[in-house]
Specification:
This protein is an alpha/beta fold and 268 residues long. It is 49% helix and 16% strand. It contains eleven helices and seven strands. The chain is globular, with a radius of gyration of 19 Å. The structure holds S-adenosylmethionine (SAM).
Length: 268
């Protein structure tokens, strides 16, 4: 019996990792979700359907992606011409994912404001990063800074490491499921941008467990100011939410407000 269940789960894992939509997902993420949903769904079909639904929320493919292999070729060519050609292309890629697209009008100001509070970091942890590390040229960091960047999308992580190599900084992008494996890297500042509420929802409230375990001096947590679909203001809700969490940790923090994003910069 146990063997049959195991075989069903293996079949579903293989089917998902062989599918066009989820082939680039970290195998440990797919495996963990299949194991999680297996107790609720007996048949392979029902199990796969449930995991696909979960993966849709987690990977958020609707937020957008470049064609990564093509993007790597274009970026290599642009860097051969120079940093300004590369920057033009980086902005184009940043506009292909909703989170970074929204940040484009305030990109330089955003990081200048944050690092004015924390001091300019040498080592940054960018948690659930998506394409944000491509904003490196606008972060105002030293040329030899390290940006540890964590995501569960294989092609995205490979692309970020290609970019880091071209930029001449450490290839510090990591395929790592932060709900399964906490980051152990030490850093000055951790960025957890526009993901905490989804992370709490998708991973049984493991977001704060991760934040509390971070080996950093500062944590920067941001939230959208309006809901993705309804345009409803979320400002008061997240302000109160964060105040409560910070109070429980005795944190001092600063709030930064932008049209589409509110940011809390907290000293750990
Ligand atoms: C809304 S995007 C965040 C974008 C980015 N932080 C920003 O603000 O530009 C969410 C990202 O979290 C990643 N993600 C989801 N679950 C994850 C996990 N368990 N570990 C690491 N990354 C995860 C997704 O792949 C996606 O790229």
């Amino acid at each position: 019996m146990a063997g049959a269940k195991e075989a069903t789960q293996t079949r579903v894992i293989e089917s998902l990792l062989g599918s066009r939509k989820y082939a680039a997902t970290a195998p440990e993420t797919v495996t963990a979700l299949v194991r999680l949903e297996a107790s609720n769904h007996k048949s392979a079909k029902a199990l796969e359907k449930a995991v696909r639904k979960h993966l849709h929320n987690i990977m958020a493919p609707y937020l957008g992606d470049p064609d990564y292999p093509q993007a790597a070729i274009q970026l290599t060519e642009a860097f051969a011409e120079g940093q300004s050609q590369a920057n033009t292309l980086l902005l184009e890629f940043l506009s292909m994912h909703e989170s970074t697209k929204e940040r484009l009008p305030i990109l330089t100001q955003f990081f200048a404001d944050i690092f004015a509070i924390t001091g300019v970091p040498n080592t940054v942890l960018d948690l659930a990063c998506a394409l944000n590390p491509l904003a490196f040229p606008w972060m105002g960091l030293a040329n030899d800074a390290t940006v540890y960047s964590y995501d569960i999308h294989t092609e995205r992580i490979d692309f970020l490491n290609t970019y880091f190599a071209l930029q001449g900084i450490p290839q510090a992008a990591k395929l790592q499921d932060l709900a399964l494996e906490l980051p152990t890297e030490q850093g000055d500042v951790a960025l957890f941008l526009k993901e905490l509420p989804r992370f709490e929802r998708n991973y049984q409230k493991k977001g704060w467990r991760m934040i509390d375990a971070l080996n950093v001096k500062w944590v920067v947590i941001s939230f959208p100011t309006v809901s993705l679909h309804g345009g409803r203001s979320l400002v008061e809700h997240y302000r109160n939410y964060f105040a409560e969490k910070a109070a429980a940790r005795n944190w001092e923090y600063t709030e930064l407000m932008y049209p589409t994003e509110m940011v809390f910069v907290a000293k750990k």
